[in-house]
Design goal:
The chain is of the alpha+beta class. It is 25% helix and 29% strand. The longest helix is centred in the middle third of the chain and has 26 residues, at 79-104. Bound molecules: zinc ion (ZN).
Amino acid sequence: MNFYVTCPWCKSQFYQPSHSNCPNCGGSLPVSDGSGAGTPPPPAPRELPKSFIRATKYYNNVNTMIGIIFTVPFFWSIIFPIIGIFLWRKGLRDAKNELDPLMEGAHIQGEVTSIYVDGSKKINGKSPRVIEFTYVVGGRPYRGDVPNLMDPIDLWKKPGDKIWVVYMRDNPEISSVWPPMK
Ligand SMILES: [Zn+2]
């Protein structure tokens, strides 16, 4: 099987990596050899690279980018900026819901429930993957998903695999996977 894994922190790509930390930036890489969830996240609060925060809010965020494209050049019209600002705000809200648990969240082991190709979207001509997962907090099961993944994660993750989930203590529905996937 041939695949590559993108470092979520610095975007370096590795062909079938066997290391758990990125040789370029030192950040944790998603486990791709089927050996489990990997190293647990460090305790919160966690400092994330500024470039990762910027990418999550803007360059790597489809809604924010479309929102800005609809709003800034079309400020003189009415309908495009209304749509644009709506998408822009949704993009930033989604980014906050991803970044807050990565920085502040408690961690627990969860499990991948499904991975599929989202045929309804195309990003640079390719349909992204979505990973869905479950985790239990206080005896209650929760579900989460990570959309818009461009790595072929279905080649190296499968339902039943363990992953680390970080979630907000005051609102466990808000969660992300650790390390993030791209
Ligand atoms: Zn890296």
